[in-house]
Amino acid sequence: MAPIDLELVAGNLVQPVFITHAGDGSGRIFVVEKQGRIKIFADNGVFADAFVDVSGKILTDGEQGLLSLAFPPGFSSKGYFYIYYTNLDGDNVVARYSVSVNPNIADAASEEIILTLPHPTYLNHNGGQLAFGPLDGYLYIGTGDGGGGGTNSQDGSSLLGKILRIDVESGPGADAAYKIPADNPFVGLQGYREEIWALGLRNPWRFSFDRVTGDLYIGDVGQATYEEIDLQAAGSLGGANYGWNFLEGPACYSPPTGCVEPTGYVAPIHHYDHTVGRSVTGGYVYRGKAYPAMTGAYFFADFSTGKIWGLRRKGAGWSSQLLLDTSFLVATFGEDEAGELYVADYTNGLMYRMRSIAVLPPAYQLLLGD
What we know:
Layout: E1 4-10, E2 16-21, E3 29-33, E4 37-42, E5 45-46, E6 52-53, E7 66-70, H1 75-78, E8 80-86, E9 92-98, E10 112-117, E11 130-132, E12 139-142, E13 163-166, E14 196-198, E15 206-209, E16 216-220, E17 226-232, E18 247-248, E19 251-252, E20 270-273, E21 280-285, E22 298-302, E23 307-314, E24 317-325, E25 330-335, E26 341-345, E27 350-356, H2 362-368
Antiparallel strand pairs: 1-27, 2-3, 3-4, 4-5, 4-6, 7-8, 8-9, 9-10, 11-12, 12-13, 13-14, 15-16, 16-17, 17-20, 18-19, 21-22, 22-23, 23-24, 25-26, 26-27
């Protein structure tokens, strides 16, 4: 008996890679399709017309495509939002769009490019996560290392293999479409781009903030041996280095300078090896109301195996438990406005709502129960 199960709520999606809400009280759920469209799920169905369609201006080979979406705080009065996609040059772009007179369709002519991230010729490690910090209101951007062994991740002059933190809500900067927060950790430091908030990441495909505590959870996809979950506590001053490509998970990864921990190194709170799975999909801490037994547990998955785990702090460490073994390619989790969690099956184009079962076996009660 599985301690959680999944309720099918939507189909007819095409390669869903991200799920989110607008925070505007509408109850709408927005599903990003890798091929370039964003669909709206509401009233128990998927709208026929796309909210956004950028399919004619993106590449979708490998890990390229339309990868995520973020609504700013106060979206209902602002009427604009942000997306992350791979353009026709193979570079990754963060762009702002406005909603049209129809609240369910964006204005296709309203695009403003915020940031372009030059990408090597490899088709993988594009990152793609966007999220607004719940405590500071800044936009956080997850970038992959660009492939080729991850040499960009430890390079302070490169924006690749990082989490970036920029201010897109208080107007443009002197020479850019955004401002750099004055308290970013590398402001004024020679050899570092000031947009960098954290470094040493390989492909932070999905990260999320705990909506209650503000803690940042990062699922970083591994290379040869390990997948990892990293944590940055709320109130952090930034500058954490998560190790790649000196370290992969808890182990050395043949760095050119030998097996050393880089300055600012922060070890993962959880890792698993490739006998278990080969591509971690970061998830969310459950903060919904429907299933109290799940409250406070962080849920994540492995894309390649369909396994879903729960992770919870236990004393000074962390305890994980396999909760469900699916046949899906789990590309993403998502939250609705109430904090309920969803899971996307990439291959079959299905979206599920996560729920706990009525009676939990004792082993799972230790993990999920209060």
